[in-house]
Amino acid sequence: MADVINVSVNLEAFSQAISAIQALRSSVSRVFDCLKDGMRNKETLEGREKAFIAHFRNNLHSVNRDLKELERLSNLVGKPSENHPLHNSGLLSLDPVQDKTPLYSQLLQAYKWSNKLQYHAGLASGLLNQQSLKRSANQMGVSAKRRPKAQPTTLVLPPQYIDDVISCIDRMFPEMSIHLSRPNGTSAMLLVTLGKVLKVIVIMRSLFIDRTIVKGYNENVYTEDGKLDIWSKSNYQVFQKVTDHATTALLHYQLPQMPDVVVRSFMTWLRSYIKLFQARCQRCGKFLQDGLPPTWRDFRTLEAFHDTCRQ
């Protein structure tokens, strides 16, 4: 096998070198033991010093002798040939350069970012739960004793329960009609008609509102095949503004433990647009500013403001 690997090593000298290493370690240990014991077993100080020096000198000579023997044997051992096969270890030189493919550093950075995101999400959830009583419109008029019990936070709710919630909201506001449909399975889509002012397409996931699109009352909200058009924007700037404000309202009304309250609060806020073209701005007192009526509605007081006056 030595011929196959082509290793020119003197095994006899190698075995002797191992024994020489052990002898060297023993002699070095005796030197430190001598230093540790110090001057002992002599009556006079002079006798103790002479005995200590003689013992210490003998130990140093032993270390020197063993070290020379080890050096002699190391020259007899030889060294392996440089052209013997490396097998799989030869592939180590093919590893990519860390500067060109920093995979480890990227994974470490992603792990730290994920931990920070989870930490801040927990803090945000705690703050939102503390402010839960302030995140509904003030016109709901539901007392704490009559408030319904918290619903499960799961996204999968029975369709019948969702239908009952939407039907109850539809009866709450006579000037608002809500048509519910499920063209793509269990997910509900609402077409909300607010008087003769506007129409709103509400896309929902279970009882959670995903997004909304606001269009004028006379605008077409259906595609050519008769389905609700959930992609096209309104042709009027005023309803595009209201769409942006509705998206902001969805981010404001967040209460995962009670999704039905979120839907009612959003519909209450949306109902305040019944006088979109009749309400004055509560700050500047004007009906129009830059050709637009006050399109912003305060989330708590539902007062009308121009987009530039609400700050």
UniProtKB/TrEMBL annotation:
GO terms for biological process: regulation of transcription by RNA polymerase II. Keywords: Nucleus, Transcription, Transcription regulation. It is found in: Nucleus. InterPro entries: Mediator_Med27. The keyword Amino-acid biosynthesis does not apply. One of its GO terms (cellular component) is mediator complex. One of its GO terms (molecular function) is transcription coactivator activity. Component of the Mediator complex, which is composed of MED1, MED4, MED6, MED7, MED8, MED9, MED10, MED11, MED12, MED13, MED13L, MED14, MED15, MED16, MED17, MED18, MED19, MED20, MED21, MED22, MED23, MED24, MED25, MED26, MED27, MED29, MED30, MED31, CCNC, CDK8 and CDC2L6/CDK11. The MED12, MED13, CCNC and CDK8 subunits form a distinct module termed the CDK8 module. Mediator containing the CDK8 module is less active than Mediator lacking this module in supporting transcriptional activation. This is Mediator of RNA polymerase II transcription subunit 27. It comes from Pongo abelii (Sumatran orangutan). The lineage of its organism: Eukaryota, Metazoa, Chordata, Craniata, Vertebrata.
